[in-house]
């Protein structure tokens, strides 16, 4: 009996390799859960380092470009008072000096720090920071100018695929190329109900594009992310927060420190448990074998 397996080449992000049989690259998605406060961002870096993550991620926007025009003047109640949605978007951005501080703080804890740039100037901004990789948020899958700017960086790119059709994803992959690409299955419902998780998409994306595929999760709890790892996800990203009751749109579907720590503990156990699919008799089986098997073949 023979079978044909095509090897999908791992992708290097800094010193980490993302691919089958490699350590799962766990990303603590800080996003905008810092609410514009650098001390909260640092605490979330601490949480990620203590939990054993590989990276933290932010969202970088140029608000006057990336905020949809019909949203800009809408009034939003915030902890800093009522303000337009555009002003709120500015309120939660960090500048170059703050990013520099955060990236070097993360590095001092052994973590990569990068962002999903939501517009072309934000790609340049993160390039100036020397980010090891860039991520494409699901909302940006159809932003071809952004994808072209990202492709031009020559950096490994992580492409998320929520809220997108397969045709839109085809076009994004065509623009980015597959030689330095990691994809992420995602469904962008916050919080994600299990029936919309569609985890078998991990295999579909891997077969269709022949690149390493991970999972970006928005569910409550840990099970679905753990199942993603069992289905071969090479990276797992989860939103993290200090406290789910904090103000902000992503807080409620984020993991708190204890949950993130449990997730990574269980991912590391699953990595060992997956094995290589080659049948062998393990040393631990020898005593039960001699005790229990009656007929030797
Ligand atoms: C929203 C983001 O990611 P995803 O689409 O994977 O949820 C992001 O990276 O900014």
Automatic annotation (TrEMBL):
Pfam families: NeuB (PF03102). Residues 44-279 form the PseI/NeuA/B-like domain. Coiled coil: none annotated. GO terms for biological process: carbohydrate biosynthetic process. It comes from the Bacteria. SUPFAM superfamilies: Aldolase. Gene3D superfamilies: Aldolase class I. GO terms for molecular function: N-acylneuraminate-9-phosphate synthase activity. InterPro entries: Aldolase_TIM (IPR013785), PseI-like (IPR051690), PseI/NeuA/B-like_N (IPR013132). This is N-acetylneuraminate synthase. It comes from Glutamicibacter halophytocola.
